Amino acid sequence: MSKKIVVGTDFRAEADRAIDRALSLAEEWDAEVILVHALDPALGDPPSRGELDRRMRSVLPHPDARVTFRYPIERADLAIVGIAEEEQAMLIVLGVARFNNMRDFFLGTAVDYVIRHSSIPTLVVKSRPVDSYNQIASATDFYPPSRYALEDAADLFPDADFQLIHAYRVPFEGWQKAAYVRNEVREAESKVFREFMNELRPETQKRVTPHLVYGSPGGALAKEIRESEAGLLVLGTHGESALRHATIGSTASELLRSLPIDTLIIKSGDRD
After folding, report:
1. Rounded to 5, what percent of the chain is helix, strand, coil?
2. What is the pLDDT of residues 119-144, one digit of tens each?
3. Is the four-CA dihedral 173, 214, 208, 117 of positive or negative sign?
4. Which intervals hold domain UspA (predicted)?
5. Of the candidates 113, 132, 119, 100, which has an alpha carbon nearest to the alpha carbon of residue 20?
6. The pLDDT value given to residue 238
7. Equal fold, 4-125 vs 135-271
């Protein structure tokens, strides 16, 4: 079965970044790109097929790129999920709706819907592609979905190195300020981290550098992403409502909005 990547576009500049990344990944993976532009039935008769094709070609970096066009007459989020499942795609690629500033990415309803309702890994692209994803950051809370996401990402990007990040805090920190308490918590977290690493496949372990960081998940990830120059963040989720059940907790949607890094959401599905 051929590999397929589904990418959505509304012809805005933000979507061009997703298209460029999808084409770059397709070249690496020898995959076919299916470019989806949903037509709103409320807007009346759609443009001709020829006009739509010309518009689609205009957003491609190379006019002869290996791309199939689809023009469903349906709400964009429903269309993207439906086509990805119908084509048994390996990946969905989407751009953010807009950039308010470097720490405020408005995802938009289509991205939010796809992340919540599709079982297919979804890549949210924020940056214009420059290089392959050679350095990848992955968040973990030591629960299985984060392990599944890391292993799946390692399969997708076999040449990448991974920075595995776990953030921790001292419980009831305001009342437990003694240094020995913080040291005990760190030792306990380190033990669980070692156990988590041992559960990874041996070939994955060799490519992973663990980082145990004191602080909030957002702050820890931002620090390690900056220092490692990672180009991609991987988040694992449970099978339902991806953002609500993200392995890094309720901060997942905030990370998607605030971190200026492409983010891959991988659901654990029935593996929970």
Report:
1. 40, 25, 35
2. 899 999 988 888 999 999 998 988 88
3. positive
4. 1-126, 133-267
5. 132
6. 66
7. yes
Query: What single-letter amino acid sits at 42?
Result: A
Query: What is the residue whose two structure tokens read 């796809």?
Result: 114
pTM for this model (two decimals): 0.86
Mean pLDDT of all residues in 81-98:
90
Q: Write down the domain spans for the chain.
A: 4-125, 135-271
207 pLDDT above the threshold of 70: yes
Q: How far is CA 16 from CA 10, 85, 93, 96, 236, in A?
A: 9, 23, 11, 10, 26
**pLDDT, mean of residues 53-58:** 92
Domain range 135-271, CATH class = alpha beta
Q: 4-125, superfamily in CATH?
A: HUPs (3.40.50.620)
18 and 7 in contact (C-beta within 8 Å)? yes
pLDDT category, 209, cuts 50, 70, 90?
Answer: very high
Query: What is the side-by-side strand order in the sheet with 122-125?
Result: 67-70, 32-36, 4-8, 91-95, 122-125, 262-267, 232-237, 135-139, 161-168, 208-214
Q: Cα–Cα distance between 207 and 196 in angstroms, integer?
A: 15
SS3 state at 236? strand
